[in-house]
Write the C-alpha cells for this entry.
Amino acid sequence: QAQLQQSGPGLVKPSQTLSLTCAISGDSVSSSTTAWSWIRQSPSRGLEWLGRTFYRSKWHNDLAVSVKTRMTITPDTSKNQFSLQLNSVTPEDTAVYYCARDASSVGSPFAFNLWGQGTVVTVSS
Amino acid sequence: QSALTQPRSVSGSPGQSVTISCTGTSSDVGGYNYVSWYQQHPGKAPKLMIYDVIKRPSGVPDRFSGSKSGNTASLTISGLQAEDEADYYCCSFAGYYNLLFGGGTKVTVL
C-alpha cells in the first residue's frame, strides 16, 4: 500500500522561499510509469495543480503557468522523495499544499489516486 | 484559464439521487475524455471517485457514476447515504500539460 508523507514548515515570511518535501513509500519516485505532482487548495483559489516531475529515460518537469517562474520541483532518488520550492511568496500563496501521485496504474495520467496528508502553509510576517 | 464551474451546493434525502455538474469549454471538458471527480471530507485530502469521465477506481461504490455531454461533465450519486456528505470537485485535462479544477460542490444529506 503506497503512502505519501509530507513535511515542511507551516509558516513562511513574505518574499522568502516555501519548501516542502513528499516522502514516498511503497512506490518509487523513479518509476517510469507514473508522475508526482504538487497541488494546493485555498479558499480564494480553490484546488490548483502546480506542477509535476516524472522519469522517462530522463527527468521531466511540467509547471503551471501561474507559478512557472517561481517554482521548482526536485526529485531525490536517494531518499525516494520529491520536493517543492516556491520563491518570492506572498500572502496569496497561503494554502494547504498536497503532494499526489497520478493514476497511471489504472491507465489515467490525468487523475490522482494517492495523496499526501496536506500541509497548511501560511505566508505572514 | 478559469476554473471549471460547479454549483456551490446540492442536497438530497437518504436514498435519493443527486447530480453535480461541471461546466468547462471545448478546450478542457469538451475536448478530452479526461474528467475526474474527487470527494473531500473536512480536514482530509481529496479522494478519487471517478476518472476518465466514467471509470470508477477499485473500492468506490457503484452508487457513484460519471458522464459527459458537450462541455459539461456530471457526477451522480444514487442511493444517497449519510457518509456521502462532503465536498466534491471535478478536474479536467486542459491540454499539455495543464489540469483545471472546479470550484467545488457541497453535498448535504438532509
